[in-house]
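The authors assume throughout that readers already know how a fold can be written as discrete tokens. For illustration, here is how one protein appears when written out as sequence plus structure tokens:
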Amino acid sequence: MSVVPYKDKDGSKREQVAEMFDNISPKYDLLNHLLSGGVDIYWRKRAIKLLRKQQPKVILDIASGTGDFAIEALSLHPEKIIGVDISEGMLAVGREKIKKLGKQDIITLQSGDSENLSFKNNYFDAVIVSFGVRNFQNLLAGLTEMNRVMKSDGTCVVVEFSKPRSFPFKQFYNFYFKYILPLIGKTVSKDSSAYTYLPESVQAFPDGEAFLEIFKKAGFKNTKCIPLTFGICTIYTGQK
């Protein structure tokens, strides 16, 4: 059974995730940087650097949220970045950020479902997603869609939380994720479920080699995983 944010409500995981992100969107960026100690910025920079050699011109940012990963991808000097997300609340925050940067001509954020993309086959030079695949209702379906819309010589870069496995960091991380993070998240965002869902969804997510197996099933080859910061986060790459 898939992990959902609001256990006392009906509705699919997709619907509940959209509602959750709408609820926390005003405080999302603040909490992201606060709860990770700002290291999430480094993770995104590291992931985007992996695309430098390819120099993609047209990029799709899946589960774009408030647009942080799309904004980081500007360092690649692309012609176009399209960000897709199911939460209008998150997209509204992202559009304001992009407007302040004066980059509306390059980055477009639009509402859309990652598991049913509206783009034609073989359209994007690269597909990127940070901290989004964990929220897919059907992981294989979402990854397969990402593969479909990407060109045959393209690269997909996925950044996602993972589970540290070494002592004592594993124990410290689990305590922080289970007790400290939900308390801070609830206090700041005023949504008691969102930051309880986060650790639960990370625990349930097939990380490392398990993710690579699903990545390959979705059609990706030359797959790699790069653990970061004691294994809290992992970058996955694959080609079509």
Remarks:
- The chain has a mean pLDDT of 93.
- Residues 13-162+205-239 form a domain with the Rossmann fold fold (CATH 3.40.50.150).
- The first helix runs from residue 13 to 24.
- The radius of gyration is 17 Å.
